[in-house]
Design goal:
heterodimer; A: about 350 residues; mainly alpha; ABC transporter involved in vitamin B12 uptake, BtuC; 2 domains; two-stranded antiparallel ribbon; 15 helices; 2 strands; B: about 300 residues; two-stranded antiparallel sheet; about 70% helix; about 0% strand; transmembrane helix (chain B); membrane (chain B); cell membrane (chain B)
């Protein structure tokens, strides 16, 4: 008879071991899945996790992609993790990411063809504000009326997707685009192009901001009183209220930070790797970032590593698609499984497993 | 617009959400919040479609969809009930897994047409002018969904098992103290919810569209979750909510088709905006009837 015994405190050792265990389990089950699809399992796993970094032929192309993909994931996940710590479930980061990109791009395009050096910073601020404003909708509804933020933030993703469709098809459409949907290409506009800062590294302003966000989040959560209040609200809401923490303020703070960071990520993406507003420039980073936040144990340094790992599966997945004909969707499943196995193995973090012989009353 | 056709199409458009929301309501009545409805629906959509196309029988499709989604939901059940994982995070994970799984399974089925579903004319009633074509000339799943509503209502209200299920959802400590198997009841509820979501998903791919495209449920699972709140956890409320929502969907599609002077995007986003609006109104009025133990993990610590 197996029994679970609650630990007085989550095990520190298991907190670190479970993400690694989840990765191994995902590799094993993923390998079985690839074998069922008729692909060589070991080769597929190697193509996903090893080749993007060390393949003699492709690595020079795919290594910079690591930072390009990890940047937005980390930036968004850092924001989400702060909310998750407080028990505030913003799962609509994808919508905030889209709205940040659309707002920032709209502000920039309003000044076309200005070459001012101030324009790009202005767009970044506009992007952050756009994402922030979109996140304020669930925040206001939650604090004033008690509306569930999970459903509202998610519904707003679909609304944002429609706004994106309309922006790309009409009000942000490039006048020189021959009537095709899509905005002007920011890559052909040097003043606002979010280009690589160091050639062949993938390092752009979004990645820089992601690193800054990691440090800032660490300081906030570990050293600042608001970080303490956020953690307290998540772990003991009643105690938080007795110690004078206003729940509404925490909701605004958490949703505001995650919205602004997601919005910035969107702006960096649209002016950099994506290059223009199109109906599908967003590649689901807002949803994958949820996995990144959990895999990183809601810890800034953990998120940094988890973001890099998740970026690796994106690039490795593309490589496996190319070299082994692995369906693109299998990577999505792979990432979902990773989250599932992490949540499953988390039982070891919070509980001790006891083997007892039968139960005597 | 012909009112007869309008009512008939509202019933078709409401059925997937009705099925999914009804299942989720039972799950929540047992005290479990499963946010994976979207993932289970899309899995049902692809499995139902694949099974129906392979066998040529929509009935087999629906059965396969219900079974597949129910089995998938048990993974959520195992994680949340046995391994005591966080229900919100696990539900999200289930949705992500379902979306990936469905895209993988469905890759070979894009562009294939679903086998047609015959209309089931209710003898006698279908001949009545106006009312007949409105309500009594649908495919069998429409009737199944309505029977399920009645069945769930009677089950929760009049049966002993229904009472136990509600007790487990209201206060799992007390239910456990009385000797009820909390985890077992919840796993059964989760299984039922998964099967219902699978049926709803299969209805989208086999009847409403009827084709398979990636991500085709487009948030229907999330809307189903909102409808459970709207319904204050009552079967009749779920029915009303789903039909109201079906009405909005049909109306905006008709406006799009008629070329109304409103931007298409505004019409396409209207179902989601209205869902938010409904949630706001409900919460302003005060949410009533939420089961006491909703979303809380149960761990028998004795």
């Amino acid at each position: 008879m197996i029994r679970l015994e609650k630990r007085p405190q989550p095990s520190r050792l298991w907190t670190i071991v479970t993400p690694l265990l989840a990765v191994v389990l995902t590799m094993v089950v993923g390998g079985i899945m690839f074998a069922l699809l008729g692909k060589p399992p070991l080769e597929a796993i190697r193509t996903i996790f090893w080749d993007p970094l060390f393949h003699p032929q492709f690595a020079s192309y795919s290594r910079p992609q690591l930072l390009v993909k990890a940047g937005p994931l980390i930036l968004i996940a850092i924001g989400l993790s702060i909310g998750f710590k407080a028990g505030i479930w913003n799962i609509g980061a994808e919508g905030q990411y889209i709205m940040g990109a659309v707002t920032g791009a709209a502000v920039g395009l309003a000044f076309y063809p200005s070459e001012s050096v101030l324009l790009f910073p202005l767009m970044v601020i506009a992007g952050a504000l756009g994402g922030w404003a979109w996140a304020m909708i669930p925040a206001v509804l939650k604090t004033k009326l008690g509306t569930n933020e999970i459903l509202v933030s998610l519904m707003l993703v679909y609304v944002a997707e429609n706004i994106l469709a309309s922006a790309s098809a009409s009000w942000l459409r490039s006048p020189e685009g021959m009537g095709f949907p899509g905005s002007r290409n920011f890559k052909q506009w040097p003043a606002v192009h979010n280009d690589e800062l160091i050639a062949n590294t993938g390092m752009h302003w979004g990645v820089v901001c992601a690193f800054i966000a990691v440090i800032a989040a660490y300081v906030l959560m570990a050293r600042h009183i608001q970080g303490f209040n956020i953690r307290l609200t998540g772990e003991a809401p009643r105690a938080a209220r007795f110690s004078g923490v206003t729940p509404a303020r925490i909701v605004f703070l958490c949703l505001g930070i995650s919205g602004a960071l997601a919005g910035m990520a969107g702006l960096f993406e649209v002016t950099g790797p994506a290059g223009q507003i199109t109906i599908d420039f967003n590649s689901g980073y807002g949803f994958t970032a949820i996995i990144v936040a959990f895999l990183g144990r809601l810890n800034p340094v953990g998120i940094l590593l988890a973001g890099l790992l998740m970026a690796l599966t994106y690039i490795g997945g593309e490589l496996a698609q190319l070299m082994l004909g692995l369906p693109g969707a299998s990577i999505q499943l792979f990432q979902g499984m990773l989250l599932f196995f992490l949540l499953a193995t988390d039982v070891f973090t919070n509980y001790r497993i006891r083997f007892a012989k039968g139960e005597l009353a | 617009m012909d009112p007869v056709l309008l009512v008939a199409s509202i019933m078709v458009s409401a059925t997937p959400i009705l099925l999914a929301a009804l299942g989720e309501m039972v799950v929540e009545k047992a005290g479990v919040l499963n946010l994976g409805v979207e993932g289970m629906m899309i899995t049902g959509a692809v499995v139902g479609f694949a099974a129906a196309v392979s066998t040529g029988s929509p009935v087999v499709g629906f059965l396969a969809a219900a079974l597949a989604s129910a089995v998938l939901s048990l993974s959520f059940g195992f994680l949340t009930q046995v391994l005591l994982s966080n229900q919100v995070a696990t539900g999200l994970g289930l949705t992500l897994v379902g979306l990936g799984l469905s895209a993988l399974v469905g890759a070979g089925f894009e562009g294939v047409r679903a086998p047609g579903m015959g209309k089931l004319w209710i003898p006698g009633l279908a001949e009545i002018p106006v009312i007949g074509p409105m309500f009594f000339r649908h495919d069998f799943m429409v009737y199944v969904s309505l029977l399920l509503v009645a069945g769930v209502w009677a089950f929760l209200k009049y049966t002993r098992a229904g009472l136990i299920l509600r007790a487990v959802g209201e206060d799992h400590e007390s239910a456990h103290a009385l000797g009820y198997k909390v985890v077992r009841v919840r796993l059964a509820a989760i299984f039922f919810g998964g099967a219902c979501a699978g049926l709803g998903g299969a209805y989208v791919s086999l009847v409403r569209v009827p084709q398979w495209t990636e991500g085709m449920t487009a948030g229907a699972g999330w809307i189903a979750l909102a409808i459970v709140v709207f319904a204050s956890w009552r079967p009749l409320g779920v029915l009303i909510g789903a039909y109201l929502f079906g009405g909005v969907t049909v109306l905006q599609l008709n406006l799009q088709a008629a070329g109304a002077k409103v931007p298409v995007e505004l019409l396409s986003m209207s179902p989601y905006l209205i869902t938010i609006l409904v949630l706001v109104i409900i919460s302003a009025r005060g949410v009533h009837g939420a089961p006491g133990s909703l979303g809380r993990s149960f761990h028998a610590s004795a």
